[in-house]
Amino acid sequence: MSTAGQTIRLTTAQAITRYLLNQFIVIDGVETRICGGGFGIFGHGNVPCLGEALYPVQDALPLYRGQNEQSMGFAAAAYAKYHLRRRFMFCTASAGPGTANLLTAAALAHANRLPLLMLCGDTFLTRLPDPVLQQLEHFGNPTLGVNDAFRSVSRYWDRITHPAQVIQTLPAALATMLDPADCGPAFLALPQDVQGWAYDYPVAFFAPRTHRIRRQAPDAAEIADAAALLQSAKRPMIIAGGGVQYSGAVAELTALAEAHGIPVVETIAGRANLLATHPLNIGPIGVTGSDSANAIAERADVILAVGTRLQDFTTGSWTAFAPDARFIGLNAARHDAIKHLSLPVVGDAKLGLAALGAAMTGYQAPADWTANAQAERRKWDAYVDSNVAHGNRPNSYAQAIGVVNALCDKRDRIVTAAGGLPAEVTANWRTLDIGTVDVEFGFSCMGYEIAGGWGARIAQAEAEPDKDTIVFVGDGSYLLMNSDIYSSVLTKKKLIILVLDNGGFAVINKLQNNTGQDSFNNLIADCPTVPEPFLVDFESHARSMGADAVTVANPAELAEAFKSAKAADKTTVIVMQVDPYEGWTTQGHTWWEVGTAQVSDTASVRDKHAEIEASRARQRRGV
């Protein structure tokens, strides 16, 4: 029956929830709601109206009660990453500090190009009660508030000043979150009075709609140019980024590499594009990479960069490549496709890789080049074998990674972020199945690990309930944000959390030492304001939040504890001390540009500055 001309009277908040309820997408042949629900902490800025609107739809749009707004945003980002940006969660926070707490999570979603919808309270549009609780007053601009801070970390930002506005705003926000080129967080500021104002909305606005993720076909001329350049290559290489997985292009990547014998290296976001055992997987590239990938990168003459934004850890601050290497940028985003004078192929990775393969009929990379790359990978595998082995030496991150890698299911999901663990997981983890590794390094954000694990587990429980989400977290990140251990227990979303305690911010201590400085204010033992350092009882802390917990002394005990955690039906936290100085992965690193002191009274600082600057000779200057 036609609904033309029909209206329904709803508040602004009710219209938002009704619209979200009726937006669908088809994933693997099954139609499902795009919005998987939300994370919320209610306050005066969102509970009277948005809370009222969410209550009747709680079965269709489940609302997970958060412990911290920032961690809610992290959980939502991890949920979207698990679903390859095809589904998202919203976060709702009250006006003032509740919303301000979401700022870091918005930045993380923006850097990682992840969909996240923020529905945040705002001051009254009428201004009749001003100044209100938690309002920031800008004397010369009464329109300016906390929510304006989100403009720089949102792909889409709007303040709803009239109920009718959502008719335009909601489709625009959703289109942004689903766009492969512009994907990122959308922020809607909801003044407390406007949330409850009513309007006669067209019934047709709420009609169920099934969306598709746009697949932009690349320009034929760009494909032809890229194919011609690749076919001229004597030493070709493919850099596979996270966009390969978001496009669902793993099969096309594999087919192109296999058909033409082209070695493939992976970015941090692109880990788990290929299995560790694939003969053309030469390893992770860059600062947190592998000797094998970096060895071929510095010799490659033509480099096809697929679905990567080529950040400095991938490029070694642009020192990882031969000075005359030519780049082809295959990316849905023009901004990324043209970086460093790359020959751009702007379009979907799946379509672009298939088109490139069809245009390269007859081309084969020189056999000795491919064989040399594979020999480098075998040497790297031998190094990783020795690096993860445990015996008569100090406990290390690498050993813990090796234990879990040997015992986990191939479809278990690995989550980590920030500190030393992203480098150690990237270098030492052997991919067991496609798309199973989430190393958050777009924003390298401490605190993502446990919260992101919770969000990933919510998503995983929808699709693979019999598998586990495994979180690697250091003591520093744990102390920063750990309350979603409680969230996981409350919601029965089991996590296995490995807390690897090295007594502080050990990786930054390592950087401090590597730039010629003495240890200062990173390890707890080296904090001058800490007269009597002591160990945190992480086991008891985790137990107080309802988790099972155990402290182990070595990797052998870790293996037994991990087996028990796999068999358990609720969150388990396993704690192991690791050495802050010994056991780091010492190979596989490229140069990385960090700011160093040009003038210092300390000779070692001056020497390190000179040493670091001398390595700059290989740095590409945008060409």
Structure in words:
Keywords: Thiamine pyrophosphate, Transferase. It comes from Roseicyclus marinus. This is 3D-(3,5/4)-trihydroxycyclohexane-1,2-dione acylhydrolase (Decyclizing). InterPro entries: DHS-like_NAD/FAD-binding_dom (IPR029035), Myo_inos_IolD (IPR030817), THDP-binding (IPR029061), Thiamin_PyroP_enz_cen_dom (IPR012000), Thiamin_PyroP_enz_TPP-bd_dom (IPR012001), TPP-bd_CS (IPR000399), TPP_enz (IPR045229), TPP_enzyme_TPP-bd (IPR011766). Pfam families: TPP_enzyme_C (PF02775), TPP_enzyme_M (PF00205), TPP_enzyme_N (PF02776). The structure is a single chain. The chain has 24 helices and 23 strands. The N and C termini lie far apart (60 Å). Helix 13 links the parallel strand 16 and strand 17. Strands 5-4-6-7-9-8 form a 6-stranded parallel sheet, with helices on both faces. The protein is globular, with a radius of gyration of 25 Å. It folds into 3 domains: 205 residues, Rossmann fold, CATH 3.40.50; 159 residues, TPP-binding domain (Rossmann fold), CATH 3.40.50.1220; 189 residues, Rossmann fold, CATH 3.40.50. Helices cover 37% and strands 18% of the residues. By secondary structure, the chain is an alpha/beta fold.
